[in-house]
Amino acid sequence: MYKKCTMLINPKSSKYNAKVIENCKSIIQDKGYNLDVVFPDETNFLQSFYQKASKANENSDLVMTYGGDGFFGLYQNILHQEGQNAIISHIPMGTANDMALNLGITPKTIEATKDTLEGTVEERDIVTSNDIAFGYVSTFGHITNIPYDTPANLKKIGPAGYLVAALPDILKLINGKYKTYQITITTPTKKQKMECLLGAVSNAKGFGGVELYPSASQNDGKFEVLLVKPQIIKKVPKLIKDFSYALIKSKRTPLNIFENYQDEIEFFQTDFLQIDFEQSPEKPFDNDGDKGPLLKQGEPITYQTKQKCKLLLPKRITKQ
Fold it and tell me: What are residue 74's phi and psi, to 5 degrees?
């Protein structure tokens, strides 16, 4: 009897192509899987996604998510809330496709499908923000809303579209028109007050289209915390140049933040973090490129690793 595979597909993804999906269906069926193809309804998308994703996790041996980074993050929350039954894999079809970088998957849909089905199962930490799981990164602060506020026409040109969309806000930074946050961070080993321009909590080698932490493990029970201080403003022109070079040349070109910006950042790893704001961010957090939590005044945000998931990944990925 064939094993059961569900393709869970987001047709709203910027790189979605119906003909390519048909090719992928044939590849999966040729591997001997009994295949279901599922699309969340465009009306009531989130409700439909959770219903269909939950059913896929319950009734399948393998669930393959075809979509952007946020689509994978939504599925992580299914596993966090309900536990994992089916092995999962992710085929990138989004704009930035940072999960392709982090999981070692090619952004070419057909090739990624072939590579994954020939792969091996690995474990990866699930990280939550206020008890909601995300795929790889959660951010707040100046310009971090750009991924979810960028128009669809700019997303179609890839990560560079985000850079174009961010230019007005970058100019505000250069001209001194920005807001900082007075925050208190609490971990199992320290409590610290600081002024922060933006922050990113991630279980990733990189985000924003570039590699930031080449040696980071995604299966060590910890996540990476990057807090950017207002002092970065003096280096914004250099940061734009370095980021653009890393973005355009290659996703494997590190930004070298620890060498070039060590006085402008606070970086550490932990398995628990609480951030208290004197004044909460006005916009929602960005979780995997989509809208995340919107804090009420006085409400903290808490990050922690609670469990792991099992993913089918290309063989070139080695166990960390």
Answer: -60, -40
Residues 122 and 162 in one domain: no
d(CA 119, CA 318): 11
Structure tokens at 24: 């992928």
CA separation for the pair 158, 99 (Å, rounded): 14
Write the CATH number for 259: 2.60.200.40
Indicate if the pLDDT at residue 295 is higher than 50.
yes
For 158: left if phi > 0, alpha if psi spans -120 to 50, otherwise beta; the answer is: left
Q: Are strands 290-291 and 286-287 parallel, antiparallel or unpaired?
A: antiparallel
Count CA within 13 A, CB hemisphere, residue 23: 12
Q: Which residues pair with 222 in a beta bridge?
A: none
What gap in Å lies between CA 207 and CA 251, rounded to an integer? 9
CATH of the domain at 100: 3.40.50.10330
Q: Which residues pair with 92 in a beta bridge?
A: 67
Q: Residue 178 — very low, low, confident or very high, per pLDDT cuts 50/70/90?
A: confident
Range of the domain at 28: 4-126+309-313
How far apart CA 162 and CA 160 sit, in angstroms, is: 5
Residue range 54-81, pLDDT digits in tens: 999 999 999 999 999 999 999 999 999 9
253 pLDDT higher than 70: no
